[in-house]
UniProtKB/TrEMBL annotation, chain A:
GO biological process, one term: protein transport
Stated name of the protein: ABC transporter permease
Chain ranges of the ABC transmembrane type-1 domain: 94-284
Pfam families hit by this protein: BPD_transp_1, OppC_N
Major location category of this protein: membrane
Family (UniProt): Belongs to the binding-protein-dependent transport system permease family.
Domain of life: Bacteria
Organism the protein comes from: Bradyrhizobium manausense
Membrane topology: Multi-pass membrane protein
Taxonomic path: Bacteria, Pseudomonadati, Pseudomonadota, Alphaproteobacteria, Hyphomicrobiales
Membrane-spanning parts: 31-51, 98-122, 142-169, 215-241, 261-284
From TrEMBL, chain B:
PANTHER family with a match to the protein in the record: DIPEPTIDE TRANSPORT SYSTEM PERMEASE PROTEIN DPPB-RELATED
Organism per entry: Bradyrhizobium manausense
Protein name, per record: Peptide ABC transporter permease
TM ranges: 9-30, 103-124, 136-162, 174-194, 235-256, 285-307
Membrane topology listed for this record: Multi-pass membrane protein
Family: Belongs to the binding-protein-dependent transport system permease family.
MF (Gene Ontology): dipeptide transmembrane transporter activity
TrEMBL record, chain C:
One Gene Ontology term, aspect cellular component: plasma membrane
This protein's name: Peptide ABC transporter ATP-binding protein
Topology in the lipid bilayer: Peripheral membrane protein
Domain ABC transporter, first and last residues per copy: 9-260
Lineage: Bacteria, Pseudomonadati, Pseudomonadota, Alphaproteobacteria, Hyphomicrobiales
Source organism: Bradyrhizobium manausense
């Protein structure tokens, strides 16, 4: 039998990771990818907050003399057909992606939780009605529904947020509803009921906190998908209108022409989108592993 | 079984009816219609002409009447006329379907044939370098926007061949067929193969924890027999669901990919019609997509009953 | 002493640990025992005492990570299983050594027909055609007294009741006529009425096939009915070993005595029932931070200073009756 180094094995199992910081450090080591995702997310958020200080030019200022300039020391990522600095536009674009990502996830998530809790609690016709509406919303692919919503509402930042939030509602409400139904059968909820706690109080004090972990996991997973949907909408010309520097818009259909003449206009915004979504997905995955042990892989 | 089918079909009809209502009224809540757009484009406004045209298109009538008119036509197979081309909507939509269907089929094939084996390998080698590499690969598959991937392919094509592939609905050679269908299908399928792989991996890991896997090992079964015979047979069920649902939801990737590659399929047509406010085309296309999604879900449930001996739809 | 060629299983100083994030978990610590051909050895103890890990260690199926067998030897028919390669071990599992698990509901593969699961067990170890293997599978189902075995073989696990499934598990485990059968709480998950039938079936087949049996249970009643010898485990260690008669007549370890006292006796007619069930106070200690001395000391009425400081050695009190207790001599008087 091979010699076994007990200390090494125990370290690997995390036996030494007691106390706050040690625990965090252990988790970061265990979930290297998640830590990388968190780093990317942090950089992304800081970029959005301090965009004015990081950007080297006004993202909207047109300079026809330097249109379609190659990447250079003056314009790190080149300029677009209006002579706008691509780097500065990408830095400012982080704000739009972040606003849409967080805005629609929060909006869709909040409405979804309310609908899900109500639906799970007031079984009967209310539940049945919500279920059928969910069926309807879920029978249309996210992008199709968002396209029609933006077409109906008109292209603007708040409308894009709303258009992406609505398709999220059934996903979130389904999870909340399922958890609510399962939790209602739990002894501690029965106990709360038996001591005369009101249903709303039970819902907020006992059921909601216990369904939070899967919801956080779901929300993080959706964050990347909302950023992608905004990019797709804007790419198709139905999302954030010009001249705002949305990453998807920067790649809009005309980008196919620039593939030949100005590939930097294609490459850099795409990297920005992919990196932001990748960071959100990496972080979301690690969060799921930590918070949702049932799915731990 | 029969009662279950009847109930299922009824619910499907309710859903489709709901979608038709939502779509119809959603498209009409915004001020401004096709006539405004046409007139704005033409640059003059003669109120008499405008009223005339509105009458001709039937959009002067109350919305409910318009809705009933649409649904009535739909049930008879009459989809109305495109506002833009003035041809019957059916004639506009029908020839575009096979193009998109071919792309979707190829993309699914790609997704399953890459995603399932890689997912199994990743689960079996859980925690290894291969597992890590595959997980990063699948996450990047979910993170790259399809349209950007398409643009990158075009960039590479320009760099290597000096030209971009041009769509030909009836490819003459294998190379042309490959460029026309396979490359866009791979671009679409990349994302869904990543999804398939993730689902396969987590499903396999879940199954590998089960008691019956331990029983199989206790019999003396080899790792290969345990993984591929005992585990995969159980783990494949959720994967079927995801592939089935993904089949319908591929349309999102198809919309942007057809746009990037200039492919005249239904997905790109939908975007064009939305931009032109060509209601007859938009609402009929959305109904078509909804029917595909609803039937895909139904097919998945039926497949489940075939693959899982425990499931018998009796209620 | 029996002739050593009669020994099916000889376990020496087995040690299995788990590396967990709260520390080293000694699930099985320095465990030794033997099983003879046709003999039934019962391993008893509370849940978490290391019985099931012992069983998995014998099969070399301890999940790794977090578990690992770190010492000792397990000799089955004079071969040290711990020295075999994984491929060699696979040839032994299901062939010379088999196991029946606690949960018949989840231990059979839900999407494979019962017959096919037994056929697989046969064909893994015997060079037979699928027709021959199928005949053996049906024969085994008949042997475990499943009615209409040929039809049942074509059914899926969910179509069988819990008792039937456990019979099928037994058929599968015995299909290759193993030298040793391990039954880990085989009846715990079943209805009381079914329990006795399954137990009787295992014993009948054991007698018929001459298999050695390791029966893991927490139920002393089952032990009394079935076993020839008993091992009592506490916190991963063997604290007492004796023949069934000797153990029930005069337990030497306070823990064993406690286990026996907690079985409610049926009162004789006219005698008032015991007012309160006897229980062992306290709970099993955390296997991560075991005391230096006897692990049972904190719960033991007889504990003295020495019990907390020094672990008592296993001492033979005559006739192979082993007990690890500083106060074994006084146990009988006190209770």
């Amino acid at each position: 039998m091979a010699a076994i180094d007990f200390e090494v094995e125990l370290k690997r199992a995390g036996a030494h990771a007691t106390g706050g910081w040690r625990r965090v450090l252990f988790l970061a080591q265990r979930h290297v990818l998640g830590a990388a995702g968190l780093t990317i997310m942090t950089v992304f958020v800081l970029t959005a907050i301090f965009a004015d200080f990081i950007a080297r030019y006004d993202p909207l200022s047109v300079d026809a003399a330097h249109a379609l300039a190659r990447p250079s020391w003056a314009h790190w990522m080149g300029t677009d057909s209006f002579g706008r600095d691509v780097f500065s536009r990408i830095i400012h674009g982080a704000r739009i992606s972040l606003a849409v990502g967080i805005g629609s996830t929060a909006l869709g998530g909040t409405i979804g939780v309310i609908v899900g809790l109500t639906s799970g609690y007031l079984s009967g016709w209310v539940d049945l009605m919500f279920q059928r509406v969910s069926d309807i919303l879920q029978a249309l692919p996210l992008l199709v529904l968002a396209l029609i919503m933006t077409a109906a509402l008109g292209p603007s930042l708040p409308n894009v947020i709303l258009a992406i939030a609505i398709p999220l509602i059934p996903t979130v409400s389904r999870v909340t509803r399922a958890n609510t139904l399962a939790l209602r059968e739990q002894p501690f909820v029965e106990a709360a009921k038996s001591i005369g706690m009101s249903e709303i109080r039970i819902a907020l004090r006992h059921v909601l906190p216990n369904t939070l972990a899967p919801l956080i996991v779901l929300a993080t997973a959706q964050l990347g998908s909302t950023i992608l949907t905004e990019a797709s909408l804007s790419f198709l010309g139905l999302g954030i209108p010009e001249p705002y520097p949305s990453w998807g818009r920067m790649l809009s259909e005309s980008a196919a022409e620039y593939v030949r003449t100005a590939p930097w206009l294609v490459i850099f915004p795409g990297i920005a989108i992919s990196l932001a979504v990748f960071g959100a997905n990496l972080f979301g995955d690690a969060l799921r592993d930590i918070l949702d042990p049932r799915q731990r892989g | 079984m029969f009662a279950y089918l009847v109930r299922r079909l009824f619910l499907m009809l309710v859903t489709l009816f709901g979608i038709s209502v939502v779509i119809f009224f959603l498209l009409r809540i915004v001020p401004g219609n096709i006539v405004d757009i046409l007139f704005a484009a033409a640059g003059y406004v003669d109120p008499a002409d405008k009223v005339d045209l509105e009458k001709q298109l039937g959009i002067d009538q109350p919305l409910v009447v318009q809705y009933l008119h649409w649904i009535g036509g739909l049930l008879r197979g009459d989809l109305g006329y495109s506002y833009v081309s003035e041809k019957p909507a059916l004639q506009e939509i029908l020839p575009r379907i096979p193009i998109t269907a071919r792309l979707a089929g190829l993309a699914l094939l790609f997704s399953a044939s890459i995603g399932i084996p890689l997912g199994v390998i990743s689960a079996v080698k859980q925690g290894s370098r291969i597992d890590y590499a595959l997980r990063v690969l699948s996450l990047s598959g979910l993170s790259l926007p399809s349209f950007w991937l398409g643009l990158l392919v075009l960039t590479a094509s320009v760099a290597m061949f000096g030209q971009m592939p041009i769509f030909n609905p009836n490819p003459q050679s294998f190379a042309e067929a490959f460029a026309t269908y396979c490359i866009p299908a791979m671009v679409v399928g990349f994302r869904s193969s990543a999804l398939t792989m993730r689902i396969t991996r987590s499903s396999m890991l879940e199954v590998l924890r089960q008691d019956y896997i331990r029983t199989a090992r206790a019999k003396g079964a080899s790792d290969a027999a345990v993984n591929y015979h005992h585990a995969l047979k159980n783990a494949i069920l959720p994967v079927i669901t995801v592939i089935g649902i993904e089949a319908a939801f591929l349309i999102g990737g198809l919309i942007v990919t057809e746009t990037v590659f200039n492919i005249p399929g239904v997905a790109r047509f939908l975007v064009e019609a939305i931009r032109w406010r060509d209601y007859p085309i938009v609402q009929n296309l959305v109904m078509f997509i909804a029917v595909v999604v609803v039937f895909a879900n139904f097919t998945v449930d039926m497949l489940y009953a075939v693959f899982d001996p425990r499931i018998r739809y009796t209620d | 002493m029996a002739d050593s060629s009669d020994l099916v299983l000889e376990v020496k100083n087995l040690k299995t640990v788990f590396f967990t994030n709260s520390g080293l978990f000694k699930a099985v610590d320095d465990l030794s025992f033997t099983v003879k051909r046709g003999e039934t050895l019962a391993i008893v103890g509370e849940s978490g005492c290391g019985k099931s890990v012992t069983a998995l260690s014998l099969m070399r199926l301890v999940p790794d990570p977090p578990g690992r067998i770190v010492g000792g030897s397990v000799s089955l028919e004079a071969t040290d299983l711990l020295a075999l390669s994984e491929a060699e071990m696979r040839k032994v599992r299901g062939n010379r050594i088999s196991m029946i698990f606690q949960e018949p509901m989840t231990s059979l593969n839900p999407v494979i027909r019962i017959g096919d699961q037994i056929v697989e067990a046969v064909r893994l170890h015997r060079n037979l055609s699928s027709k021959q293997a199928r005949d053996i599978a049906v024969e085994m189902l008949r042997l475990v007294r499943i009615p209409e075995p040929a039809r049942r073989a074509r059914e899926y696990p969910h179509q069988l009741s819990g008792g039937m499934r456990q019979r099928a598990m037994i058929a599968m485990a015995l299909a290759c006529r193993p030298a040793l059968l391990i039954a880990d709480e085989p009846t715990t998950a079943l209805d009381v009425t079914i329990q006795a039938q399954i137990l009787a079936l295992i014993l009948d087949l054991q007698k018929e096939l001459g298999t050695g049996l390791v029966l893991i249970t927490h139920d002393l009643g089952v032990v009394a009915q079935t076993a020839q010898r008993v091992i009592v485990m506490y916190a991963g260690r063997k604290v007492e070993e004796a023949s069934v008669e000797a153990l029930f007549a005069a337990p030497k370890h306070p823990y064993t005595r406690g286990l026996m006292a907690s079985i409610p006796a049926v009162p004789a007619p006219g005698v008032a029932a015991q007012e309160r069930l006897n229980e062992i106070p306290g709970t099993v200690p955390s296997l991560v931070r075991l005391p230096a001395g006897c692990a049972f000391a904190p719960r033991c009425k007889l504990a003295i200073k020495r019990c907390e400081a020094e672990y008592p050695p296993l001492i033979d009190w005559g006739g192979g009756h082993l007990a690890a207790c500083w106060r074994a001599a006084d146990v009988a008087e006190v209770a």
